[in-house]
Amino acid sequence: MLKLEQVRRVRDLLADGRLSHRAIALQTGVSRMSVANIAQDQRPLELLYPPEETPKPQRCRQCGGMAVMPCRVCAARQYQRNLLAMRRWASHPPGQNHPPRRPAA
Ligand SMILES: [Zn+2]
Prior knowledge:
Elements: H1 4-16, H2 21-28, H3 32-39, H4 45-48, E1 58-59, E2 66-67, H5 72-91
Antiparallel strand pairs: 1-2
Helix pairs in contact: 1-2, 2-3
The structure holds zinc ion.
């Protein structure tokens, strides 16, 4: 498990943008995989934020679940709705006549 100070140091160096992941790994004693994970924010929240800044889960007004805002469940549902709307739009763009209905069998 990485120490919070190590994660902070890696994040600082990443934000600085001058060193490669490999160089940051060597300098901080953290594996390159960990540096890559930190770069993608895949570390658990308690390692990314000091305890007093750790976001608290709240009741989502849309789905009613407990979630750290913004709610990812609602974001995923919205994404899916958008995707379906885009597919509908792509198959029947507005302004074009819809294909003739298939006659009832
Ligand atoms: Zn929600």
